């Protein structure tokens, strides 16, 4: 049985350990000690040394061998990093709810997921519950572009199915669909000139970019697809026709072909504007992650639905417009659902989670492990 008070106390401990993106070292060391104490074999990969990750801390990959169970090897994952302001978190526990003091985030995103996994591991050991083996991955850099999952040492993973605990819905939510995303970065090269003496000799890069953007479909494209231009920078002074401007944006969709069509449309509008006004546009498009697209009869979905029903949670299959480490795992052919944890108002100083959700998260993880014994890969 899950020990509620122990679970809550550990969650309170975790959120008080600073772990903003790029500064996960202290939390990683703490979790290493905890996992080792539970008998898991813990490995820290080299993700922290990759230039594209920019972390000093690697992902933690911990393995608990099967103890006689016949079920599949399962992966459970949550991320260690938090957004800012995440230093000096002082949690307040009151009336069944946990908040921060109000000047920082709380960090339930994603320490609620970590706490649920850790408590489930303890109960497994205490009650000698049979299982077919577990692998636990605690990632770095999730909040800054899923960088830990992208740099993960996948040679260390043998699990082919699993669960990420990193969605905002309540326990029982099973995210089976999430978008693929493309990012766009374009540098428009115009021509500088004195804005007051000879503006006709210049090519205004900001005007070129603005015309390109004006031709784009942005925002909500359809029920599956969105796009955005989020950053623009350029120019030197008001009396100089701006020679260069850089814009950054994205396109995402549950339907991969729609995401590709949308980013291609955005690129084409920029190219046409540059050609029309005599400028040049250097455009870079990067596929940031693959979609989640799990069928209702996919093994992790079947296991999660049955487990939720057994402990009185209402399972529901959902989709999201956001990306998570689960997207990266699915792109690595690990069938992985993203589970709701009940974290609310994340990325704000009003963030909170209820004790009930913390308890249900751990109950759900434990029951998934038990239920998986009835399935084969």
Automatic annotation (TrEMBL):
Residues at which Zn(2+) 2 binds: 109, 143
Cofactor(s) listed: Zn(2+); a divalent metal cation
InterPro entries recorded: ArgE/DapE_CS, Bact_exopeptidase_dim_dom, PepT-like, Peptidase_M20, Peptidase_M20_dimer, Peptidase_M42
GO molecular function, one term: metal ion binding
Keyword Transmembrane: no
SUPFAM superfamilies in UniProt: Bacterial exopeptidase dimerisation domain, Zn-dependent exopeptidases
Domain Peptidase M20 dimerisation per the UniProt entry, residue ranges: 184-275
Top-rank lineage group of the source organism: Bacteria
Cofactor, free-text remark: Binds 2 divalent metal cations per subunit.
Record PANTHER family: PEPTIDASE, PEPTIDASE T
Family under the similarity heading: Belongs to the peptidase M42 family.
Protein name as catalogued: Peptidase T-like protein
Species of provenance: Desulforamulus aeronauticus DSM 10349
